[in-house]
Amino acid sequence: MTMTKRELVIRVANHTKLTQSDVARIVEDTFDAITQALANGERWELRDFGVFEVKTRASRIGRNPRTGDQVPVPERKVVTFRPGKKMKDLISGETSDTPSESGARETSAPAPEASSPGAGAIS
């Protein structure tokens, strides 16, 4: 099953009791901030979720699949995502640290880390 932005908005609105329009604005602003940071070449880290990064793929010689001719492929920038440890563990089924039905964590969370203003890290 694929989750759309609309489904995310509905789920968060139901969980937080905020209006869907408020949540939609927050989600859109969050995606815009991530996109803008990546466009500026910044790394964006969401603790326990993962890291978005822009990497440069080197130029290379490719092959046209139709004709078999060699074709130069220029270097380009691509966005990569590396999942965090909690996400990897949760997906692989190696952890029992799941949110309770009320949505609250059953284990205590560590104190948030301080980050410099404008940095792409969210704790």
Give keywords.
single chain; two-stranded antiparallel ribbon; alpha+beta; 123 residues; 3 helices; 2 domains; HU Protein, Chain A; elongated
Please explain how this structure is put together.
The protein has 123 residues and is α+β, with helices and mostly antiparallel strands. It folds into 2 domains: 1-42; 50-95, Irregular (HU Protein, Chain A). Helices cover 33% and strands 24% of the residues. The protein is built from 3 helices and 6 strands. Strands 5-2-1-6 form a 4-stranded mixed β-sheet. β1 and β2 form a beta hairpin. α1 (5-16) crosses α2. The longest helix is centred in the first third of the chain and has 20 residues, at 20-39. The radius of gyration is 20 Å and the shape is elongated. Residues 100-123 have low confidence and may be disordered.
* Series of secondary-structure elements, N-terminal to C-terminal: HHEEEEEHE
Assign a percent range to the helix content.
Answer: 25-40%
Mean pLDDT: 83
By CATH, the architecture of the largest domain is named Irregular
Q: Which fold name is given in CATH as the topology of the largest domain?
A: HU Protein, Chain A
Distance between the termini: 28 Å
Q: CATH homologous superfamily of the largest domain, by name? A: IHF-like DNA-binding proteins
Portion in beta strands: 15-25%
Q: With helices defined by DSSP (H or I, 4 residues minimum), what is the helix count? A: 3
Q: What's the number of structural domains?
A: 2
**Can you tell me the overall shape?**
elongated
Instruction: For the largest sheet, list the strands in their spatial order.
Output: 5-2-1-6
- Quickly name the level 1 CATH class of the largest domain: Few Secondary Structures
Structural class: alpha+beta
